């Protein structure tokens, strides 16, 4: 990773542009992403006991994540519209917070990693909103793509 | 923080509801949030040299963050609509990535912490999108509220 | 109700326009709405048993309704933007379907009945989507405002 | 309809997920939906006379319905994005209200029934908004899919 | 107009930021904007005869403009959210095209000129879309603010 | 251009409808559009000197245009959803204002001219917003399609 890849789409003046994917093939593509929300013990207890004041925090976060995956091109300025064909989001309560994982699939012309990352990020934001009356110091951390398949650049996954 | 605060708005059945803020006063409120995007050296170099293939990554991230702050109630299911009256976003390139900070202000009936967090999160997502052709392992981390003022619950800031 | 009320805002050419509410006072306003989704026995059983294939249908419907309340001016062309300050949605499974009720509150310049109706309607749509693999003949019915308070036109409720 | 269909996509924990349609074929699909808005005689008269205070109610409702069809995946949390390729909406004024029918077509990987239902529902909401100064007791009713074609599950229509 | 006004909100690094209006007073504000769509004679004739293939072009344009006024802060990155309290749009068919005028009102903390301009611009876009099967060379022109009232900077109007 | 083309999709009652494109082939399509923002000398100088009070006006306008291209079907009521596969926007500062050009590409079932026009229009609106503290009389003008390729109706470009 010591060199910047050369793209034919680079603009000489350095201005932002949405690169052309119209000639790429429609193929099956998938991506996974993960992240964590670090929480105080009282917040973890409220999640485990189902006593979060604003209601069912995990369900709200899951649905927010699914909806955000569909809204990625509206949030990320140069992201291409991608037809999101499947989304699963899992939230697992751990002793120090909540682990969030998401898997996203499509059959389209470009990768779907940004949709997976957006799904995890917004699920995390929604979780923080639900729990903030209990813990105003929640921290969203370690959001990254964990696996990718399909497309020309090859499959890979976090070991 | 060893006890869950009591809210009069809690629903006995634990279902999610948007709590009532209509009787709260319109007052000046502000919040700051921060986060980081950890990047490989090649990506940091591309940012510093202005050679990111998709264009001006820092400007795109900044604008994405500002727009996302305004769209917070559309992304976070139980967040109240808040009139966002000011947003500043700063992205500082460091040796191991980019530090993102945001300040948001309003004169409204409820706090604006979620807007600050959403601003930082979406700025981070947009930055990852811009740089992903150079570094597919970018990691978004340490997103949290760093200061808050206004409202009944008191002012505070990260020491 | 035998006469059309006279509004000073009427346009002689009959074209659609958003009437002026800028001079109205900011006051507390609330509205309730209700509706039903009629379902086959298998669908009611799936809801009661928690075996709906796509997941927790009632939670999804509730959250969809809350979010739609906030998006009313984006859906209803001449609706004024209103700051939605509280939303509660209840879904009660009955023998022949699901009863949906919503209450919405604001402190703003115009009424919030459309927000209550939109909340119920979109909660109903989301419920139909969740259950349609089980019952493709779901029917949304009896959506109406059931009570209103605040504003110049007086309070009322369905007897 | 006495048994819940088995879907391979069911999650054991009952959480909501967007099921995978990426392997389904792109085929022509269509759906029709219908519904009614029940109105007081004064409102029916205003529609027939073109004297609705806020303007051309039927045109506003029709356009609101078309736009809502396109926005279905944004409103219905687990709905897949579908490329809406045709929408027709008809509003017929009857003695006791307005009959709304919609037809929606696509060439995509999943059915378009939710788009047809959303189109009718939002056209109805927009109509209620236009007429509410004349009739605050409008009632939206009998919204259902009336016909469907394309896809593996077979064609059918309301007899 | 020979000098750039000094704003205290200017950032030394020249980056884009949403300036702070939270301390400004809520006052009545209004703005008018105008523009034209230049059309071929066949298109003007189709508008006058009501034979535009896609349907009632003027109604569609009017409604698109009203909705766009409400969506201004979502389209214009640094625009503040403003509560749009009234919108009127007029389209007058002339021999060489269509004249569009819009008036927008609010009681809020900042001006509403961008809402008026966005209203006219999107009404023009919608009109071009309706008529493009008849005239593919439609031209949108002369969009500008024509009058403004309210706020500290004084009232003015195009003479 | 002396006759209105006959479309089989015309509705006898003249109501607006989204015409059916589901049977059209997915082919490569492109469109270019252009427009101008006329500005006072002080505004041109501020753009050239990089001293626009609200920040980097050209970058904001460019990004606003790209995002608007993706949002075209949400703004233009009867526009079909089109998968935007590439967008480039250029803003050139001239002595009397800024020239805006955009190129948009897709592989889809219908043309992408409206996306190109929307891109230029919203880039122009964003530019006006950035510069309005310096020049409140900015004028958006001469927005039109300048070239089109792909689809049955043939290629053409402004000579």
UniProtKB/TrEMBL annotation, chains A, B, C, D, E, F:
Gene3D superfamilies: Molybdopterin cofactor biosynthesis C (MoaC) domain
A Pfam family of this chain: MoaC
Domain of life from the UniProt record: Bacteria
Domain Molybdopterin cofactor biosynthesis C (MoaC) span(s) in chain numbering: 18-151
Assigned keywords, A-Z: Lyase, Molybdenum cofactor biosynthesis
Catalytic activity: (8S)-3',8-cyclo-7,8-dihydroguanosine 5'-triphosphate = cyclic pyranopterin phosphate + diphosphate
Pathway assignment: Cofactor biosynthesis; molybdopterin biosynthesis
Residues involved in substrate binding: 78-80, 114-115
Broad class of enzyme this protein falls into: lyase
EC number: 4.6.1.17
Subunit-level organization: Homohexamer; trimer of dimers.
Annotated family: Belongs to the MoaC family.
Name this protein carries in UniProt: Cyclic pyranopterin monophosphate synthase
């Amino acid at each position: 990773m010591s060199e910047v890849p050369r793209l034919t789409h680079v603009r000489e003046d350095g201005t932002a542009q949405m690169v052309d994917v119209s000639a790429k093939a429609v193929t099956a593509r998938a991506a996974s992403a993960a992240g964590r929300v670090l929480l105080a013990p009282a917040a973890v207890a409220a999640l485990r006991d189902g006593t979060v004041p604003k209601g069912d925090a995990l369900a709200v976060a899951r649905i927010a994540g699914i909806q955000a995956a569909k809204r990625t091109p509206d949030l990320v300025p140069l992201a291409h519209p991608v037809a999101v064909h499947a989304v699963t989001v899992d939230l697992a309560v751990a002793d120090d917070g909540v682990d969030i994982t998401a898997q996203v699939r499509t059959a389209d012309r470009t990768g779907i990693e940004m949709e997976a990352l957006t799904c995890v990020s917004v699920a995390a934001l929604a979780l923080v909103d639900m729990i903030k009356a209990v813990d105003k110091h929640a921290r969203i951390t370690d959001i990254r793509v964990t696996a990718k398949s399909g497309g020309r650049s090859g499959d890979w996954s976090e070991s």
